[in-house]
């Protein structure tokens, strides 16, 4: 499937790139990052124009985010199908914790720094009724970083696309796991502090009642 998609990039070009970024934001298993890397390589070779590639990839990603947001906001069977399975459920739970911890900036970073959480952040943001203008602002800015980063990497390393894709994918997964671990650590520290404060407060009250 991946080979078929990549072979279609020089033929259908811009529409393949836009479609890939759109679908990836809905948790459809499309190798959108690899498609953008490949498109960047074709830009370097002069077969595609840089501005339309970047523009349509960004528009596709932003529209995909809006579709995910609306699915989360309205609920329904479509959103349920996107989160079916153990892995999807785990990613959705991580996205909720990441969103609770970081809010708007979390939307921004989930577009590119911890991109595996991105589609699920869309659903979480919609379900939580996050302000739509705020969601659009943070999401569009993050998608710009994502698109420019991958198309730029493809342009700069057009002779080593497979190696760059593997490094980028491994780094993104590691960062997502690290972000979740940090979030859980901060949450646990907050809980422990709260319990410690509660115990100290209770001890003072018991001391006041002693004769």
From TrEMBL:
Location within or outside the cell: Cell membrane
Pfam family, one: VTT_dom
Keyword terms of this UniProt record: Cell membrane, Membrane, Transmembrane, Transmembrane helix
Record field: transmembrane: 12-30, 36-63, 135-157, 163-188
The VTT domain, residue ranges: 30-155
Membrane association type: Multi-pass membrane protein
Superkingdom of the organism of origin: Bacteria
InterPro entries membership: DedA_domain, VTT_dom
PANTHER family attached to this UniProt entry: ALKALINE PHOSPHATASE LIKE PROTEIN, UNDECAPRENYL PHOSPHATE TRANSPORTER A
Protein name, as recorded: DedA family protein
């Amino acid at each position: 499937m991946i080979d078929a998609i990549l072979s279609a990039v020089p033929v259908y070009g811009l529409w393949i790139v836009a479609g890939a970024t759109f679908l990836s934001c809905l948790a459809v298993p499309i190798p959108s990052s690899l498609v953008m890397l490949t498109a960047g390589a074709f830009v370097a070779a002069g077969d595609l124009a840089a501005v339309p590639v970047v523009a349509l990839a960004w528009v596709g990603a932003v529209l995909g985010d809006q579709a995910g947001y609306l699915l989360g906001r309205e609920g329904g069977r479509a959103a349920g199908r996107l989160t079916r399975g153990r892995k999807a459920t785990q990613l959705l739970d991580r996205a909720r914790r990441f969103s609770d911890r970081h809010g708007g900036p979390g939307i921004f970073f989930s577009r590119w720094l911890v991109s595996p959480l991105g589609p699920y952040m869309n659903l979480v943001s919609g379900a939580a009724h996050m302000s739509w203008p705020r969601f659009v602002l943070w999401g569009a800015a993050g998608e710009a970083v994502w698109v420019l980063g991958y198309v730029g990497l493809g342009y700069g390393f057009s002779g080593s696309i497979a190696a760059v894709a593997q490094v980028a994918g491994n780094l993104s997964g590691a960062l997502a796991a690290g972000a979740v671990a940090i979030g859980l650590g901060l949450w646990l520290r907050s809980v422990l502090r709260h319990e410690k404060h509660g115990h100290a407060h209770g001890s003072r009250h018991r001391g006041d009642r002693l004769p």
